[in-house]
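Appendix B: complex inputs.
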Amino acid sequence: MEDFQRSAGRSSVRRGAVAVAALALPLAVAGFAAGPAMADGHGGDMDATVSVLHGIPEGAGADVVDVYAGDAMLIDNFTPGSLETLVVPEGTYDLAVYADGEGPDGGTAVLEAAGVEVPGGANATVTANLDADGNAALNVFVNDISEVAAGDARLTVRHLAAAPAVDIRADGAVLVENLVNPEEAIADVPAGSYTADVVLQGTDTVAIGPADLSLGEGTNTIVYAWGSAEAGNLALAVQVIDGLDGAPAGVAAGGGSTAATGQLPAWTAGLMALGALGAMGAMARVARQRA
Amino acid sequence: MMRRPRPAIVVLIGSLMLLVGAPVAWAGLVAVGDSAESVESVGERPGLAIGQSVDAAPEPASAAPNVAGPDVERIGIPVEPRAVIAPNAPVSVAIDELGVRAPVDPVGIYEDGSVEIPEDVSRVGWYRFGSDPAQGEGSTVIVGHRDGFDQGAGAFYSIAGLDMGDAIEVELADGSLRDYEVVAREVVAKNLLPTSDLFAENGPERLTLISCIGYFDRDGDGYRENVVVTAVPLVVGEADGEPREEVAS
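Resulting structure:
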């Protein structure tokens, strides 16, 4: 198990403001986009990777839903706690969530967000979740798919629950303080297994967890806190984007040259000492015999 | 009284040999490592075809949008999570040409971002965040110290002496064996080590051994250069030995 506290000093937690639905997704792709299924990107004809999270708990009026982009269905039979990832052509979309079986043709949307711009090469997650007051909302997050340093994992935490401000802890140490709905926080940490929990801000009162969180090297592991505190169904959902790891900085395989310093290494000195002692003893014996 | 003078003289000669010989032997070891000028690079690492990008992911199946039910137009192509192949880690590496057989430990990364290397120089390390022989692609990297100040020559001390066609055998965690033949040997300045290539997890399947060599800067960062040996899997029929063991992949 990684010693998280040792690394806390070198990982810095970045806070993000969610890009609320109906605003354009910023084109946050630099260099290679290492998410799954990125198209080749020549010219203007690029796809984007869009994940959708159903983060509205059961009993809140959206138990099984269909998700539409304009007149075309994106996801069928979507249940609470599910996450689906699709490749879509770049473009501007009117997203709408309907009760299962209903659609734009005669149905009434449970949630909608018009004019969501999805640029080519983007990697984003759209969430249907409760806001801090318990009302259904649609949010859009851009996922950080920039390179992760060798040996590290990226942890992204998103507060999508009808619950007050929380702290996120890993192995008992607070990693993110005072996270509110619908904020996110991101940190690159040493890859490994951590015991994570979510506590009410400034307290030790556990709201969610503890849960074993495995942060794979080279992944962006995105953890969503969702559900309703009042209804007692707070939970964690996890999305993993892999393939982001960079190569190591180098290989310093010197060890220590046998010519490292003017000093003799222990084995040489030891053999010489043995030789010296033996020589002295033998010379003394030879001298006595000659006498 | 004459009491076996000869053994005493033998002991004397032997002791003097130790006294003089030990540092000479040490100096001899040192001399080999002093200069990289005598090690030329040979061969060629298997690379990607010209124009092929390491990071290009396969296009999603560009099938017509699947239809959920009658008259429902679909948009978007679902992406399935990549199937994870459990690693089959190297546990031992044997290089008959050098008379080397060394145990392999899984290693990670030091704080400075360089690859962790087993401190016992008779052991070598498999970079566990890279590829392994079960993946069917990419570079399986094994690193080892050239030597240790108090330990003498390491398992990888002489890998710069490997040549094209030399055999390397790796035993894996599941007990199976993989055979490789050397196709390239290079010496590069440490700060120019092509890490993206050498540690790539895709591209042709290969085995990469890395150690250090060259001038030892005692006031700086130690050895100035890396020696890199690249080997490719031996195909059945090409070796003049036994066929490679069939390994379930």
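Chain A touches chain B through 69 residues (CB under 8 Å).
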